[in-house]
């Protein structure tokens, strides 16, 4: 009888450890996908991840960047110290322009190149209030940003 209880306890521990390991492996495999979907839902960051080079020349994994590091969208408001960028999903971010913010296009740009309706990609640091202080702003061609959108019917 004692041997049966010991064997049963060992089987329960082994099965429990197997379920624990399986659950941990499953959660680990799903966490990257969950974070990517969250980032895409917010409309900020680089959809699909990928390797990117930041403003310091360091390689970064685009899918795992903190919110606010890369922002794509359309300028919907601006003043001399900030712009507001609308993302693909309709959300928006306030972007503060620092004295050292680099604004680029095919040729060097300036604050006067930032216009309503222009698409931009911003690198910068996130502020505690959800806004971003820009390190660089790149003017982008007005192309379809959201690759999953359905093209208009003609």
Automatic annotation (TrEMBL):
Key words, A-Z: Membrane, Transmembrane, Transmembrane helix
Keyword Transmembrane helix: yes or no? yes
TM region(s), chain numbering: 6-24
Q: What is the name listed in the Swiss-Prot or TrEMBL entry for this protein?
A: DUF5666 domain-containing protein
What is the organism field in this record?
Candidatus Falkowbacteria bacterium GW2011_GWA2_41_14
């Amino acid at each position: 009888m004692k041997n049966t209880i010991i064997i049963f306890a060992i089987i329960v521990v082994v099965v429990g450890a197997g379920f624990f390991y399986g659950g941990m492996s499953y959660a680990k495999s799903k966490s990257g996908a969950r974070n990517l979907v969250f980032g895409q839902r917010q409309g900020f960051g680089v959809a699909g991840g990928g390797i990117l080079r930041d403003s310091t020349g360091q390689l970064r994994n685009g899918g795992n960047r903190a919110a606010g590091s890369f922002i794509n969208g359309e300028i919907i408001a601006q003043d001399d110290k900030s712009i507001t960028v609308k993302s693909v999903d309709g959300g928006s971010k306030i972007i503060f322009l620092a004295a050292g913010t680099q604004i680029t296009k095919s040729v060097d740009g300036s604050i006067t190149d930032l216009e309503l309706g222009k698409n931009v990609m911003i690198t910068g640091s996130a502020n505690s209030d959800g806004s971003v202080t820009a390190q660089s702003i790149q003017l982008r061609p007005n192309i379809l940003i959201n690759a999953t959108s359905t093209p208009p019917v003609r």
